[in-house]
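Protocol step 4 of 6: structure prediction from sequence.
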Amino acid sequence: MRRFLAALLVASAQAVAKDCDYSFSVNNATIELLDSSQTVEQTVRIIRGQNSPSGRCRIYRIFFSKGLANSYQRKAFSTKGASLDYNLHSNINKAGILKEFGDAVSANEYLQGEAPEKLSTYSRSFFISAPGLANNTMQAGTYSDLVQATLYGYNDNSGKYLFEETQNFTAVFRVPSRLQVSLLDEGGTFDPSSTSKILDFGVLEQNQERGVDLRVLSNGPYQLRLSSQNNGSLRQISESTIAYALRVNGALISLGGSASGPVAIGSGGATPDAGHLYNLKVRITEITANKSAGLYQDVITITAIAN
């Protein structure tokens, strides 16, 4: 005869009361990065409850974890694996970095405040230092970090800490798309103020060639398109024309019809600080000896498009 035994385990759990009966919340942050660095204020809301001992819980202290980088040089990460540096501070002057319990030594490495009354709500500010975009090709996108904030009651007389609770805090940084182009003498370095160039051939002759460098600075995917006002010809006021050829990084570009339909000449992703280089060469391909005297010209327009 088989016997089946069954056991029923009955257990009970009792919530452990917090020593100081504090609760708190931390506002998450969403920061749009600007050209220059910025310091953004955030707020912690602290509630001292009914069951809070009168004297020993008057002071609270809040500590912050290292975040996903596991470092006090905190980093926020994008879904593509890119990162940006930021940090947390107790004051707007950034005179210290907020740290974890056990690592914080000086008063500017944690948040401290007084909550003298029970059943009352208090607030405390801290500050996020965000980088600027000037002269930076930080990849466009959304970056985030998750930090834990932990609140303790603090007995100023005994130096004893009373753990209360931990809350998650998310910092989100948005990097807008940035795209700039610069037209330069060949071999020149990126200059955002240089966006036009004149190629002066002097007295036109067949096979003359002039060059210019186009540099693109972008923090995300981009496309380049080009159009010729005269569809690949230099035109004189009398309507006489002289044909020329355009090469971009050595590749021949057909400009026929480009006045109404710009042609693609390149594309790329986020660039290094020096930008991506496109060398443009213009060569006179037509015999000029039988052409009418006068000034011949064409306008080439280059358009950069952020994807």
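Step 5 (inspection) to follow. The chain has two domains: 22-175, 179-306.
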